[in-house]
Amino acid sequence: MRKILTLSLCIAFSIYVSFSQNPVSENGQLQVIGHQLYNEQGKPLQLRGMSLFGLMHMPECVTWQSFKLMKNEWKANVIRVPVYMANYSNPNNYNQNPDWNNALIDSTIKWSERLGIYCIIDWHNDRYGSPNDLNHKKADSFFKLMSTKYAGKKNVIYELFNEPYGEIVTWDTIANYANRIMPIIRKNDPKAIILIGIPQWDQKLEKVDTGKLNDTKNVMYTFHFYATSHKSLYPMFISQIHRIPVFVSEWGTCESSGMGNLDLETSSKFLNTMKQHILDMDTVTISWCNFSYGDKKESTSVLKPRSCADGLWDNTTPGGDFIKYWIKYNTAPENKIK
Q1: Is residue 49 part of a domain?
Q2: Domain membership of residue 318 as a residue range
Q3: Is residue 37 part of a domain?
Q4: Among 28, 31, 34, 300, which is disulfide-ready with 252 (CB 3.0 to 4.6 Å)?
Q5: What is the DSSP letter of 298?
Q6: Residue 59's closest CA among 90, 18, 19?
Q7: Could you say which of 163, 167, 265, 298 is catalytic?
Q8: How many CB atoms lie within 10 A of CB 160?
Q9: Angle 98-115/139-149 helices, nearest 10 degrees?
Q10: Is the dihedral of CA 321, 322, 328, 333 positive or negative?
Q11: Residue 250 designated active-site
């Protein structure tokens, strides 16, 4: 009887993934109901796509042609745009050069809107791990500008803070930051999906206490994993996705350093779970962005070195072949481990 009931729930849930000419036109304004992302018509929706490496590091990979390739050929329906605010290894970080970043963000939103795909604007910390750090003081004005410029655009999603550092940044600290930033966004863009980072580099889902937030409507919590380093997180992941709404806004097939061997078996284990998972008659699907659409010489890149400089937008690595197949077909390629 339980097997029949579970099968019925799977059929009734009927995850809706749009590979139409215009996924945003078809799915409209996204919403969160319970633990699940839904489209405007109230159908469960899974977004699958890529995270850029970052605007300041590889702007040559951030083009109309690359966006069009990811959407039309790979069938991605979401692209994440990391905006590095305080990485001073490059003068095009947001704190030093906001105008340069704002112009490129504007291009990514226009391209995404034209293609009909969703776009995540990510305030991307990678050096200063607490949102209380003075290097993040422009977050308020940044999200005010973004939510004013893109108010009412159904394809825009806001990610408040990438990977708060380790145990030194508690959920209370993150919640206080979110309670400060979310009203700024809500004033201008009240229906938008907002993604909130979690402790220990977006790994500790169990630390999330939604009661500490003043607003939980259309809010999701980001989880990040790198398959070779984080296979031990899987049991926690499958329990927590049935407690809170989760969005995997960054994940990789290799080590958390971006280097090392690919673990395609663990990658597929997570991906199959995100396709659809049932626990105690609760069915969820998890949206995701793989890191990264870039051509840096490292394991996590989906493009071979110099691909972007040469305009070779589909010049994928073995890991890239695996990823683009998963985006398009939501399963592992036959010649790869499942």
Answers
A1: yes
A2: 2-329
A3: yes
A4: 300
A5: S
A6: 90
A7: 163
A8: 23
A9: 40
A10: positive
A11: yes
CA dist., res. 252 & res. 323, Å (int):
9
Residues forming beta bridges with residue 158, ordered by sequence position: 121, 194
Q: What is the pLDDT of residues 137-195, one digit of tens each?
A: 999 999 999 999 999 999 999 999 999 998 789 999 999 999 999 999 999 999 999 99
CA distance 244 to 261: 31
294: nearest Cα among 55, 47, 48: 55
335 domain residue, yes or no:
no
Here the tokens at position 287 are 């949206």
Residue 173 to residues 121, 132, 244, 245, 282: CA-CA distances in angstroms? 21, 8, 19, 20, 30
Contacts of 265 (CB under 8 A, 6+ apart): 337
* Distance, CA of 269 to CA of 272 (rounded, Å): 5
Q: How far is residue 194 from each of residues 50, 164, 178, measured CA to CA in Å?
A: 18, 16, 10
* Within a domain: 338: no
As a whole number of angstroms, the distance between CA 186 and CA 311 comes to 39
* Catalytic residue (one of 159, 250, 255, 298): 250
Q: How far apart are CA 49 and CA 88, in angstroms?
A: 28
Query: Tokens representing 80?
Result: 């994440």
Residues 18-28 pLDDT 10s: 456 899 999 99
CATH number of the domain encompassing residue 263: 3.20.20.80
Give residue-wise pLDDT tens across range 254-313. 999 999 999 999 999 999 999 999 999 999 999 999 999 999 999 999 999 999 999 999
Q: What is the pTM of this model?
A: 0.94
Provide the domain count of the chain: 1
Residue 298 designated active-site: no
